[in-house]
Specification:
- By secondary structure, the protein is an alpha+beta fold.
- It contains eight helices and six strands.
- It is rod-shaped.
- The relative contact order is 0.13.
């Protein structure tokens, strides 16, 4: 019997824990479920392909060419030897060639190309981080919206309980001649209004829960309890937003591009092997098709890039200043928003200091009104007004509590200090 009781208690506890859902869990599940998360894999795949392609620049480069030509004149040897004829070169010439070129030193072009690929991929990842981070704000809004509706539903139930109790009292007063049918109808109208409001709140809650289910990628049961986060007293002010990492990645990409400009005016060394078949071959005096080959080394040094080097550097510097400006503007706007959030948090904390006192006084006024109705010195309509005021005071307290949590998490969103 003890084992059975223990099992039942454990099952009940486990079921209750399973039916709870916190904001931190929602944020993690939403990040894992969001379709944009697959972009990280695509970025890595693209980076690997580009790096592999860049590295292939060190492999032997094979090229094949061919030509057939006819020329109006050819080189002749101005000699006239009796009894010996020197044939002239043919005016129609043919050649097919395969050349293998092996890079020895490319001025660092391949290395810089790899660095460009890595820098661009890192910038793409940081951009994806920014897009993913924006998802947190949507989850926060929906989660706190559900918490606010839950508080409103609780206050709605309390109000209906009080109205139902007063309906019994007013019905009894009518039988004793202290109230009439209109007074009973007035209470019934308030009860119906309360039920209509509850129906609206329940439908809104279902819509919010469906939106949150889509974001986290799993069905949320109707009996799930949404846990209130803890209202932290001390909030961090250091800004750790992913946008800052994006700006740093953009600066790094420009640094890499600046370094890569040096490769444009550096010399390039390579060795080559040519194999060909044609007429004439290497022996220009032999008028017949024959194979031949040639091996050697090349030096290429293109000074044309020096013409645009200065402008290229100025262009990169202009882009760098644009990044600096965007970062400074982002920090300024974020600090302004943080100042606004801190003021809102401070205001809500001060308002909450008097919420309980207001509720206590409103409860006293409502109790006094109910007593006056029982004595016939106050109308039911006036008593209902005081009952509504008490309910509004309780709703204001609940609203302030949830609003404070919302503002705190907006502050966390602005600083990325979850």
């Amino acid at each position: 019997m003890k084992r059975l009781l223990t099992l039942i208690l454990w099952a009940g506890f486990a079921g209750k824990v399973f039916a709870q859902l916190s904001l931190d869990i929602c944020l993690k599940k939403a990040q894992a479920n969001y379709p944009l998360v697959r972009q990280y894999e695509l970025i890595s795949m693209t980076e690997n392909y580009d790096l592999s392609n860049a590295a292939k620049g060190n492999l032997p480069q094979v090229a094949m060419s061919g030509k057939a030509s006819y020329q109006s004149d050819v080189t002749t040897i101005p000699l006239n030897i009796p009894g010996y004829t020197i044939e002239s070169l043919p005016k129609d010439q043919y050649q097919i060639m395969v050349e293998v070129n092996q890079n020895i030193w490319d001025g660092g072009q391949i290395y810089h190309n790899k660095q460009k690929v890595k820098a661009a991929s890192d910038e793409n990842r940081r951009q994806a981080d920014v897009s993913m981070y924006a998802l947190n704000e949507r989850v926060n809004q929906i989660f706190f919206g559900i918490l606010l509706i839950d508080e409103q539903l609780r206050q709605n139930n309390l109000l209906e309980t009080d109205l139902t109790r007063n309906l019994k009292n007013v019905t009894a007063y009518r039988e004793n001649g202290l109230a009439n049918n209109a007074d009973v109808d007035a209470v019934n109208v308030e009860i119906l209004n309360t039920r209509q409001k509850r129906l609206e709140l329940e439908n809104n809650r279902l819509a919010y829960v469906r939106m949150l289910s889509l974001l986290i990628g799993e069905e949320i049961k109707s009996d799930t309890e949404f846990m209130k986060p803890v209202a932290e007293e001390n909030l961090a002010t250091e800004i750790r937003r992913p946008e800052l990492a994006l700006y740093a990645a953009q600066e790094h990409r420009l640094d890499v591009a600046s370094q890569a400009l040096k490769a444009g005016y550096m010399p390039r060394f390579s060795i080559f092997l040519q194999g060909a078949y044609g007429n004439p071959g290497l022996n220009m005096l032999k008028n017949e098709f024959e194979p031949y080959y040639m091996v050697g080394a090349r030096l290429n040094w293109n000074f044309g890039t020096l013409y645009t080097l200065k402008n290229d550097r100025k262009k990169l510097e202009a882009e760098r200043r644009q990044v600096y400006m965007n970062r400074d503007l982002f920090l300024l706007n974020t600090r302004v928003n943080l100042s606004e959030q801190e003021a809102a948090i401070k205001t809500l904390r001060k308002q909450m200091e008097t919420d309980d006192e207001i509720i206590r006084m409103r409860t006293n006024i409502r109790c006094s009104a109910e007593a006056k109705v029982a004595n016939g010195t106050l109308t039911v309509t006036e008593m209902l007004r005081e009952l509504t005021n008490e309910s509004l005071a309780r709703q204001n307290k609940a609203f302030h509590e949830i609003s404070l949590l919302m503002e705190i998490y907006k502050h966390k969103q602005l600083t990325n200090t979850y």
